[in-house]
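tool=predict chain=A
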Amino acid sequence: MEISLVNKPLTAKRSLVFFLVPNFSLLPFSAAIETLRIANRMLGYDAYSWRLASTDGAQVVSSSGIALEVNSSVADERKHLGGESRPSMVLVCSGVFVEDFQNKSVNAWLREVYNRGVAVGSLCTGAHVLASAGLLTGKRCAIHWENLPGFAEAFPQVDVFADLYEIDSNIYTCAGGTASLDMMLNLIDQDFGENLVNRVCEQALTDRVRGPHDRQRLPLRARLGVQNAKVLSIIELMEGNLAEPLSLLELADSAGLSRRQIERLFRQEMGRSPARYYLEIRLDRARHLLVQSAMPVVEVAVACGFVSASHFSKCYRELYNRSPQQERADRKVTLAQTARSA
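tool=predict ok
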């Protein structure tokens, strides 16, 4: 079905390359492509085209175990940069275990793509690959909230945010999930305007276009099932001060309560003391850093507010029933099993 687009030419065309990293997430990948497909259908012609690429041109297995055939390799794509098949945008699609993807030829290709004026972007955890290629230094980017702690520690020179997506000059990054739909809608809006965006939303059964800075996660009130505003404000302070934990007195003062009052409130609302809850969220961040980065255990301990590695290990074992070292070992076993099944 063709539509009339006021003040927007029906000639805009973009060609995209989706570069698939092993264990990429299907949801953000398919959401991005389906958004573009629907736009083409609404326009009545192929304003957007795409192809899939991998490091060596072989199929790539997603995190759900579904393998996709690709159209080209990195070597092929380097040749395309100088010809008619030159893309308008290259998007890196990744997912779990992205920290273990290291490929110098991919990094060099991405730098060449960017230096030749082609837009570069990422879906889900793909910002990790862009940062490894040196493309995000001094740039704003978005990444999935679960990967943000490890990313921030690994790439302190990058301005990373828990936003749905970020556009910084010619670099597009999104947090994954359905956020890739929102980023593609932004692209469609640039090319054809709000009318087409609304038609695509109607077809995709989504009732609104989310902005880049909309939150990724549910609000604390919904996520934790807590209604007490004082408790929520204290938890927000805790989550914002993990490397240098605030004292119970400082937390109490910030909420205008006594230490005894916040002890009572936390036991009523959270079923544990504020000190215990604070410890648990620090250990949760430590767990993310252990599985997402190669940081030494002692540096993980310091980043999460522990004064010594021994105290950190003791607390970690008490909560997770294994040591930080065992957490790392278990992750290596998982990676080896994933590689064998690919």
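DSSP finds 15 helices and eleven strands in the chain. The CA atoms of residues 48 and 328 lie 43 Å apart.
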